[in-house]
Amino acid sequence: WNFLSAPAWIGLENYIALASDPVFLNSLLVTLYYVGATTLVTIPLAFLVAVALRSVGRIRRLFAPISFLPVMLSTVIASVLFVS
């Protein structure tokens, strides 16, 4: 719509054009692959880290500070930025 003429109702034409666009269909397929792959990797990895943090011993002493490091770093970085 170019703001110079009256708007025209096109219904679902944009969605029909989108569904027939090969670039959109390719990007949708790549997105679905990405979501599936990252989900299949991150959930078991997060479970293993949770089990390691729940265990007692040297593994817990190693993983606990590493897992809390992003929380500490974001606070420190924000503080440095606001002080500067």
Q: In terms of per-residue confidence, which ranges show pLDDT below 50 for 5 or more consecutive residues?
A: none
Give the overall silhouette. Answer: elongated
Which structural class should the secondary elements be placed in? mainly alpha
Please give the number of β-strands: 0
How is the main sheet built?
A: none
Residue share in helix: over 70%
- Output mean pLDDT: 88
**Number of helical regions:** 3
Q: Secondary-structure element sequence?
A: HHH
Task: Report the portion of residues in β strands.
Answer: under 5%
Radius of gyration, rounded? Answer: 24 Å
Report the end-to-end length measured between terminal Cα atoms. 47 Å
Secondary structure elements and their pairing?
Layout: H1 13-19, H2 22-54, H3 58-83
Helix pairs in contact: 2-3
Written description of the protein model:
The protein has three helices and no strands. With about 80 residues, the protein is mostly helical. The mean pLDDT is about 90.
Summarize the structure.
The chain has helices at 13-19, 22-54, 58-83.
